[in-house]
């Protein structure tokens, strides 16, 4: 498995750069991951990231955009502004969680 | 006398009552199944209605014809399930007590959930084919369509039968060629996914089939609204796809009573253990078929394979024993590709669709991920099997668990 060095830590990632172990994630790591995809984290970003982390801890799965909007209360439109183009993927990447199921 | 109540008499619900009736003593158990009408639709047949291959009479039969004796069919609409008193309330005031409940009410297209979808253009230039009425209306529209831009669109995953939009696209493209008007029509496939399908190898294969047919794919497109006046799909990131004829797959949601009963997730699907299909919150409630939240395709084949595992598990569970069956998410779908050919895909929770042969390794006669006439004939023959073998709950000689025998991973060949 590939590894990457971010913020002085060596971290195991998958082929697309998603963290393999969500427990390796820290808030400072999130800031670095976000910077890698050109995002400067604001409070609004953090609200979405914390929802995703908390929801994953409860459900064991990465929330879909719909779940972030319906359960997390962050409108899809805002998610597209916060994490442009591919919000579901980018949000999961920054939150150190597996890519959401493309559904099947 | 113990009471089993099954909500929904579709593929999963009908198979369940028929199989369990044979296994649960008449003196010990009553079995009741509730549905809002007595019309069982062979839903895979909807795909062929717009091209007039099938008509209504080919795909609708009374639900009660498919049920064995000793099953009570109640026609009515579920208002709410009261899990504390273990009672189902119908909208007309009737009440049904249960000891065990199976939710099998499937998933339904909800065009009302996308702004601009159900408005002045609905069934004028905007159609769906996941309802019989919609598919029939689309047949009319297609016969009048002779030029312009045909857009096939998926609103959001998960949807029922995730390959059907691709099948419709392939069939429409072939149909336009047959009519001699292919050069006057631009065909666009718009999807929220990042490619033609969800799984990499199948997505690549199906994606190149779109390309060969000169069908443009607009991916990662999550629709925010439809601009009716300009006949244009508008995405959240402000991309636009104009259309003359839009064939959309609306947002799919589970039944509203699931939400009213506090049994559902954000799309009204019942959270269950993905291997046993037992509700994570109530140990007297199962959800089988499209109504559950399992990470598998919402498809009749999944319902069929899941029911096979469910039946034995249910008998163990009500006897107070641990459930030993484990559903693997097995799906098996024919993909019509036009010109009387089809592909077949076979996959589960852990293994994506791979090339190979089915059901017998190396022998077939069906080919996986490859367009053949035999696959197409298999798809057409399946309607007979559905009514006469599957729904009555007779044994189908296909293993419910997916097999790797005779399959290969393309990138390991080289």
Automatic annotation (TrEMBL), chain A:
InterPro entries: DsrC-like_C (IPR042072), DsrC-like_dom_sf (IPR025526), DsrC-like_N (IPR043163), DsrC/TusE (IPR007453)
Keyword set includes Cytoplasm: yes
Pfam families per UniProt: DsrC (PF04358)
Transmembrane segments: none
Cellular compartments annotated: Cytoplasm
Keywords (A to Z) from UniProt: Cytoplasm
Native species: Nocardioides astragali
Major place of residence: cytoplasm
Cytoplasm is among the record's keywords: yes
Superkingdom in the source lineage: Bacteria
Family classification: Belongs to the DsrC/TusE family.
Name of this chain's protein: TusE/DsrC/DsvC family sulfur relay protein
From TrEMBL, chain B:
Signal peptide segment: none
Domain FAD/NAD(P)-binding, residue spans: 3-144
Documented EC number(s): 1.6.5.-
GO MF terms held by the record: oxidoreductase activity
Pfam families recorded: Pyr_redox_2
Gene3D superfamilies, A to Z: FAD/NAD(P)-binding domain
Keywords: Oxidoreductase
Protein name per its UniProtKB record: NAD(P)/FAD-dependent oxidoreductase
Species annotation: Nocardioides astragali
